[in-house]
Design a protein that fits this description.
This protein is an all-alpha fold. It is built from eleven helices and no strands. The radius of gyration is 20 Å and the shape is elongated. The N and C termini lie far apart (57 Å).
């Protein structure tokens, strides 16, 4: 478990006027959600080294309030990672159960996720730190199972190459994220090449 950040400026100097009253009016679940959204924004901009008091300020909360909900950065990172994994689980499950063929569903899903992915690597970095925590392990397993179910159906159709794996899909997303960072106007080309590499019919006459 991470040690809390060094004492920072008082929370009432970090939060905007009226924030404390607005925070107090929130339900416990709404407070948790406010912190998570603030943390995603702060870590995306500043990286994982961003101090917790900046997350608290972005949420309009006091530092003590933040630590009551997330006692450490690791716990906050873990919840963000679990949320991302569960989003992947839901998206792949919906694609596996939707209408049409599974290859088209897979390609469409990958295209949508690439179009909306962030070039910021903080979630991947956070996952590497917290992936041993039980709730993260379980979330990663759920996501892998959902992805494999869709891949298996696309393989059975004869369209997805037989040796394609969940890890290949993860690498595809990593490659398009890197392309977005290095050469944003070539992300579409990178995606096209990688989809072609997964297509068992590519090159058939």
């Amino acid at each position: 478990m991470s040690v809390p950040d060094s004492p920072a400026a008082p929370a009432d100097r970090l939060a905007p006027p009226g924030a404390a009253a607005a925070w107090a009016a929130l339900t416990p679940q709404a407070k948790r959600e406010r912190i998570l959204q603030a943390a995603i924004a702060v870590f995306a901009e500043r990286g994982l080294e961003a101090p917790m008091h900046e997350v608290a300020a972005a949420a309009g909360a006091g530092v003590a309030s933040l630590y009551r909900i997330f006692p450490s950065k690791h716990e906050l990172w873990a919840e963000i990672v679990v949320r991302r994994m569960d989003e992947i689980t839901a998206a792949f499950a919906a694609a596996a159960d939707g209408p049409g063929d599974r290859w088209t569903a897979l390609v469409d899903l990958i295209g949508v996720r690439v179009a909306h992915q962030s070039p910021e690597p903080f979630v991947t970095e956070a996952r590497a730190v917290v992936e041993g925590q039980p709730e993260v392990v379980a979330a990663i397993a759920r996501a892998a199972d959902a992805q494999e179910r869709l891949l298996a159906a696309a393989r059975a159709e004869g369209r997805l190459r037989a040796d394609a794996t969940v890890e290949d899909i993860r690498l595809l997303f990593a490659a398009t994220r890197a392309a977005r960072h290095l050469q944003p106007d070539r992300v579409g080309r990178m995606l096209e090449l990688m989809i072609d590499a997964l297509d068992a019919r590519r090159g058939d006459g």
